[in-house]
């Protein structure tokens, strides 16, 4: 079905072809006139004068025709269109208003006849197209912002948590979830994805996935001691002698331990976590990136004994995770040294 723009292009092309032909004929007349100017005899001068008169008449005729064609073209606007009859006569017809489509073209005696669009179809502009356009449908990832009417298309928008693809406007993609160590710089909208930024020095990412913000590391109070410096994905660990001796040092290792697991996504680590949870409570979790697996790991470590926690570095070594094993070994030793120091101080 030809579009409204295609119809306009056809009519403009006809007008342009006419003007081009007229210009070509005019140039040919001018050429003959210059040839006649070269004649020298009296008879030739008379012929030249007649040719000059004919040229003037031709120019006037072309100007009249050009003016008529231009007036028809200029007469077209948002509510009218130019139609050429089989006889060659041109008519300025009315377009159909939004919500309607063309039923019959205008004639010398009858105006344009229009018909309203059926349900589920629309036209948004003045037109002379033979059929209304079908309204768009919203996919499962969209929500309807505006319903379809006879004069407007249905408007869809990506639902919460999704954004419109810049290349394929009918596709909604899920917002990016900022990983650990990154915070939300610009929150996602139905038309744009979430923009993440790495947390700068002195800050770490905290909050629910999808809405994580970079927040400053906790400052230790005057009676506290900084046990572990924070990173861009974990907070400072501040302790007092009472907290270490009363609460036990195992709790101080659980959160950093889990954060390390979450930020080192490897197959070896997956196998280690599955082996650890199976050995501690008989359950096997899926990969460490799975939220349920992290919860299961947290539950296992929360009831682990000091001996089980102390054996973690050795188990990490056995799975080929030497860097993590060294990291955990240093953390455990740092905590145990602090516990020993506190006990000597209290004594």
TrEMBL record:
Q: Is Ribonucleoprotein there in the keyword field? A: no
Q: Where are the TNFR-Cys repeats?
A: 116-156, 157-196
- GO terms of biological process kind: apoptotic process
Listed Gene3D superfamilies: Tumor Necrosis Factor Receptor, subunit A, domain 2 (2.10.50.10)
Primary location recorded for the protein, binned into one broad class:
membrane
Pfam assignment, any one: Death_3
What is the annotated localization of this protein? Membrane; Secreted
Disulfide bridges in this chain: 117-132, 135-148, 138-156, 178-196
Ranges for domain TNFR-Cys come to 116-156, 157-196
Q: Which domain of life is it from?
A: Eukaryota
Q: Name one GO molecular function term.
A: transmembrane signaling receptor activity
Under the heading PROSITE patterns, the entry gives: TNFR_NGFR_2
Q: Which is a Gene Ontology cellular component entry for this protein?
A: membrane
What InterPro entries does the database record attribute to this sequence? Death_3_fish, TNFR/NGFR_Cys_rich_reg, TNFRSF_decoy_receptor
Keywords in alphabetical order, please.
Apoptosis, Disulfide bond, Glycoprotein, Membrane, Receptor, Repeat, Secreted, Signal
* Record PANTHER family: TUMOR NECROSIS FACTOR RECEPTOR SUPERFAMILY MEMBER, TUMOR NECROSIS FACTOR RECEPTOR SUPERFAMILY MEMBER 11B
Protein name, entry field: TNFR-Cys domain-containing protein
């Amino acid at each position: 079905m030809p579009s409204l723009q295609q119809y306009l292009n056809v009519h403009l092309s006809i007008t342009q072809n006419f003007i081009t032909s007229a210009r070509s004929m005019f140039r040919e007349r001018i050429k003959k006139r210059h040839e006649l100017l070269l004649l020298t005899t009296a008879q030739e001068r008379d012929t030249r004068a007649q040719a000059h008169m004919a040229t003037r008449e031709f120019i006037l005729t072309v100007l009249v025709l050009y003016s008529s064609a231009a007036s028809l073209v200029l007469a077209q606007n948002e509510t009218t269109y130019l139609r050429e009859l089989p006889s060659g006569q041109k008519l300025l017809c009315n377009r159909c208003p939004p919500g309607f489509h063309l039923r019959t073209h205008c004639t010398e005696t009858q105006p344009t006849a229009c018909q309203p669009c059926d349900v589920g179809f629309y036209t948004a502009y003045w037109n002379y197209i033979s059929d209304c356009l079908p309204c768009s449908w919203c996919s499962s990832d969209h929500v309807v912002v505006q319903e379809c009417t006879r004069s407007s298309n249905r408007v869809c928008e990506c639902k919460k948590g999704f954004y419109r693809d810049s290349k394929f406007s009918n596709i909604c993609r899920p917002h990016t979830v900022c990983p650990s160590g990154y915070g939300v710089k610009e929150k996602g909208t139905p038309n744009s994805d979430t923009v993440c930024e790495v947390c700068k020095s002195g800050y770490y990412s905290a909050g629910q996935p999808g809405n994580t913000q970079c927040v400053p590391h906790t400052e230790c109070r005057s009676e506290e001691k900084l046990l572990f410096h924070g990173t861009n994905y974990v907070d400072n660990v501040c302790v007092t002698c009472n907290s270490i001796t009363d609460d036990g040092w195992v709790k101080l290792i659980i959160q950093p331990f889990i954060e390390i697991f979450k930020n080192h996504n490897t197959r070896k680590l997956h196998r280690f976590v599955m082996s650890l949870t199976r050995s501690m409570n008989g359950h096997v979790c899926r990969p460490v990136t799975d939220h349920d697996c992290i919860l299961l790991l947290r539950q296992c470590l929360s009831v682990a004994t000091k001996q089980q926690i102390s054996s973690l570095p050795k188990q990490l070594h056995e799975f080929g995770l030497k860097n993590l094993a060294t990291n955990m070994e240093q953390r455990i030793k740092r905590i145990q040294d602090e516990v020993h120091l506190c006990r000597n101080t209290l004594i």
